[in-house]
Amino acid sequence: MGRNGRALAHIPPGKTIITETDIMSRKRMREEETSNTTTEVQAATNHTPPQGEFTMNSVKTMAPFSDDPEAIAIREKVDYSIRITFKQAKAGNAPRPIRVFADGIYDLFHQGHARQLLQAKNLFSNVYLIVGVNGDSQTHMKKGRTVMTEDERFEAVRHCRYVDEIIKDSPWELDDEFLNKHKIDFVAHDDIPYVTEDVNDVYKFIKDRGMFAATERTEGVSTSDIVARIVRDYDVYVRRNLARGYSAKELNVSFLNEKKFRLQNKMDELKDKGKRVIENIGEKRIDMIQKWEEKSRDFIDTFLLLFGREGRLSHIWNEGKGRLMQALSPPSSPGRGNDSSDGDAEAEETSPPPPKACRLEYSAGSSRSRSSACALSDDYSDDDLPTGGI
């Protein structure tokens, strides 16, 4: 039953009817349920956490869309006739949950978006955060093409832990009809004027009504910055996706560029392998040097054992050289006369050869001719000269 005793006829059978105490934030309800579960478990186990220890509450469901029964039931329980001033909200004296609205395109949802929603969630105590996501049609017309489709952007935002409700295809400019329909108390956005073709500041209408709550932009990150990085490093991302199995047609790459990118990928693979080899060598160089020193000592010892002055090969060479010299220099012929002693043999070797025998040839000549020929043919030494003359 509602505040005025009227039944909620729009809730289908089987759905849980939210009571008056459920007007609080959907996220806060989940946190209380988790806290109660933790308390019950501690009571069952008779365990009390020590001082300083705390339990972590986690959100286990995604935020509903504004046309889901859960969001509709919460919205209809809100008494929007009770208007909450900014002063009341800051003082924490609001009689009901404060419904804060934040909107944006949220393309390539990043930490800047999440930080904006975190600030909106913590503007006041007991905030029910409603996030409006602009659709594709108006976004493409007013700002340009997006990377993600509207359905992808809706799903990305509804999984942010700070969000309690999502409004799909939120209007570019807010009006009273939209604020009253969703029972919005405050609109959160950064204070920089948002200029369009029609107005100088889209949020001027909200600011004039005292319903604007400023948040701070996260410098250094935006969707435009991320797109600029992709465009700047186009070749890198195309090569990465080609390596992951995307076809050139899917990436809108020509045949020649595809071959060029694949060749560059192969060159990068070779470079990486070379770096890994060098790194492995660098890590193992100390072990390699130690092992090399040990092997070098063994090699030197073996070399000296074979080729040193007292080595085996030296002995073999000396013995072989002696045998070779004996083979090339045979002993001299024995002497004539006597073989009695070595001294006599040496004397015979140094003595002159024996005289040649006189060869007489008898012919019809005179005896003088024969004696002259014999005298000319005899070979006498100084000691053996004949004493009698011719």
3D architecture notes:
The structure is a single chain. This protein is an alpha/beta fold and 390 residues long. Among the domains are: 69-215, 3-Layer(aba) Sandwich (Rossmann fold), CATH 3.40.50.620; 223-276 and 284-324, no CATH class. The protein is built from 14 helices and five strands. Strands 3-2-1-4-5 form a five-stranded parallel β-sheet. Helix 10 packs across helix 11. The longest helix is centred in the last third of the chain and has 53 residues, at 255-307. The protein is elongated. Mean pLDDT is 75; it is low at 1-23, 37-56 and 360-390.
Can you give keywords for this protein?
lipid metabolism, phospholipid biosynthesis, disordered N terminus, Rossmann-like_a/b/a_fold, alpha/beta, single chain, disordered C terminus, Rossmann fold, 5 strands, 390 residues
What layout of secondary structure does this protein have?
Blueprint (H helix, E strand, L loop, with lengths): L25 H20 L23 H8 L9 H6 L6 E7 L6 H11 L5 E7 L2 H7 L7 H9 L6 E4 L7 H7 L3 E5 L13 H5 L3 E4 L7 H10 L1 H10 L11 H53 L4 H17 L13 H9 L16 H11 L13
Parallel strand pairs: 1-2, 1-4, 2-3, 4-5
Helix pairs in contact: 10-11
Family: Belongs to the cytidylyltransferase family.
Pathway: Phospholipid metabolism; phosphatidylcholine biosynthesis; phosphatidylcholine from phosphocholine: step 1/2; Lipid metabolism
Keywords: Lipid biosynthesis, Lipid metabolism, Nucleotidyltransferase, Phospholipid biosynthesis, Phospholipid metabolism, Transferase
